[in-house]
Amino acid sequence: MTRVRGVVFDCDGVLFESRQANLAYYNTIFEHCGFPLVNEDEPDKVHVCHTAATPQVFSTLLSSPQAQQALDVARGIDCQQFVPLMVPEPDLLEVLHTLHGKCPLAVATNRGHGVKELLTFFGLDEFFVTVVSSADVKRPKPHPDMLLLVAERLGLQPRELLFVGDSELDCQAAGEAGIPFVGYKNTFVGQPAINGHRDLLALLA
After folding, report:
1. What are the domain boundaries of the chain?
2. Bridge partners for 88 per DSSP
3. Residue 178 has pLDDT above 70, yes or no
4. Using CA atoms, how far apart are residues 65 and 168, in angstroms rounded to an integer?
5. In this structure, are residues 135 and 163 in contact, taking their beta carbons and an 8 Å threshold?
6. In terms of pTM, does the model score above 0.85?
7. What are the distances in angstroms from CA 84 to CA 46, 52, 99, 162?
């Protein structure tokens, strides 16, 4: 691996445990539309809600007319009501403090508008040089667009970055962008993995 000169983090499942918040968000929309809710005992649907960008969630779980209706409702939802359901991952703040100043840090997430406000709510915004969401690119992960935009904004080559993600979408995006990848609390064929944020420090040492 080329010497890491910048670290990029996914948001959901890496910076935060957010399954409860994501499920509450989508179920609020589904309830408003009169659609069936997603239950926690439906792991495939829960996984989609946790990892995919909002348009992809709707197109996967709903018919085309329903997806458009859900998108229209989503535009009027105040996402801040779900922020208290987000839980920062263990040791996150300590590791961000350690890395901050040593190399630029960034976020690349399939979340849309509101991710910067989320980071500000938890006092994490000061650690990140740039934050790229699905609202900033035409194609969300698994496409490489947002990771390539991060590299451009940081003025670094993709191979000089390390992307920390927890889903197959993250792994695919990193591969297409030419960015080294490490799985967070998840394993991917041919890729290193860590079980927590402190392990990232050892990996970068």
Report:
1. 6-17+86-204, 19-84
2. 16
3. yes
4. 28
5. no
6. yes
7. 19, 21, 26, 29
Cβ contact 167:109 at 8 Å: no
| AA letter at 143 | H
| Cis ω before 142 (30° cut-off from 0) | yes
Percent of the chain scored above 90 by pLDDT?
A: 93
Residue 6 and residue 106 in contact, taking contact as beta carbons nearer than 8 Å: yes
Look up residue 36 and give its DSSP letter.
P
Task: Please give the C-alpha separations between residue 4 and each of 25, 33, 56, 68, 81, in angstroms, as whole numbers.
Answer: 35, 46, 32, 42, 37
Tell me the average pLDDT across 158-182: 98
How far apart are the C-alpha atoms of 64 and 83, rounded to whole Å? 29
What digits encode the pLDDT tens for the residues 55-97?
Answer: 999 999 999 999 999 999 999 999 889 999 999 999 999 999 9
In 3-state terms the chain splits into helix, strand, coil percentages (rounded to 5) of: 50, 15, 35
Q: Which CATH architecture has domain 6-17+86-204?
A: 3-Layer(aba) Sandwich (3.40)
For 73-106, give the DSSP string: HHTT--GGGGGGG-EEPTTHHHHHHHHTTTS-EE
pLDDT at 80: 87
Tokens describing residue 82:
């779900």
